[in-house]
Amino acid sequence: MAGEAGKARTVLLATEKAFAADAVSKIEAVTSAAGYKLVRLENYKSKDDLLKAVADADAMIIRSDKVDQAVLDKAAKLKIVVRAGAGYDNIDLKATEGKGVVSMNTPGQNANAVAELVFGMMITSARNNYDGTSGFELVNRSIAFYGFGAVARAVHKLAQGFGMKSFAYDPYIPAEKIAEMGATPVATVAGLFEHQYVSLHVPLTAETKASINKELLMKMPKGGTLINTARCEVVHEADMVEVFKARQDFCYLCDVAPDDKAAKEAMTAAVGDKFGKRLIFTAKKMGAQTLEANDNCGVAAANQIVAFFEKGETRFALKA
């Protein structure tokens, strides 16, 4: 249980998309120092592999791997699961709470990596995918954030360096706090779409699912650009196709391509110009794919597990 120090523990590192080797070594250094055994299940191909491996685990570290009722039914000893990253919709929080398993994430650990990717995509788009034609500069342009957590604030910091104007809406952060951090608070989600760039930094919930729709996107000014490093499901995919058809100036920069191949192909077909200018899809979710973010997220997850068992700490516990 939490707070019972000095016991032997087994920590399962279950990563369908494996951490860099150096990050794994650092994770193992943390768990070994606590007297825990680290079991590695990396690049696995079948959920059956996960169901088998979780049987003896006291704790789990995951990335985008799904922890659902089926996993929990096999996890007889599991007390804690930590998502190495910010988003956590891949954990069934009601199921973990029902079984008395604590769920955590590692907020802020990959914020800089995601922020740099955002700007990489913005520059690629603004310079027409480096095709030799004239693009535009980012200085004096506006960027609006839906959600103003650690990642959005990291993007905001870079935007300030580029001489951009920042705006933000976050229902959980008071307007005066947003202003203190250097962004202009916006009263509604719709108000964000008055600006050229809108960057999404919200979790996938019943409220946010498919909430970015045609009505909002058509409000954007000339050159309007949506940036999505959050979750693909927050965007209404059919509406996105319609916006591409209606507006030749609209751009979508996305690190979370639809899982549905047909939806992705429909967006690509609707673009109508050179792929990589108006529509950017990364090959796979790349926001946290840096050596530094691998280290930060993985080590933070390991430290949170040790602190949970040895000291009873639950600072980053998630609620359903």
TrEMBL record:
Coiled coil: none
Residues in D-isomer specific 2-hydroxyacid dehydrogenase catalytic domain copies: 34-317
Positions of the D-isomer specific 2-hydroxyacid dehydrogenase NAD-binding domain: 130-264
TM helices/strands, residue ranges: none
Statement: the UniProt record of this protein carries the keyword Oxidoreductase: yes
UniProt keyword list: Oxidoreductase
Domain of life of the source: Eukaryota
UniProt xrefs under InterPro entries: D-isomer_2_OHA_DH_cat_dom, D-isomer_DH_NAD-bd, NAD(P)-bd_dom_sf
The keyword Repeat is annotated on this UniProt entry: no
GO molecular function: NAD binding; oxidoreductase activity, acting on the CH-OH group of donors, NAD or NADP as acceptor
Family, as annotated: Belongs to the D-isomer specific 2-hydroxyacid dehydrogenase family.
PANTHER family recorded: FORMATE DEHYDROGENASE 1, HYDROXYPYRUVATE REDUCTASE
Name of protein: Phosphoglycerate dehydrogenase
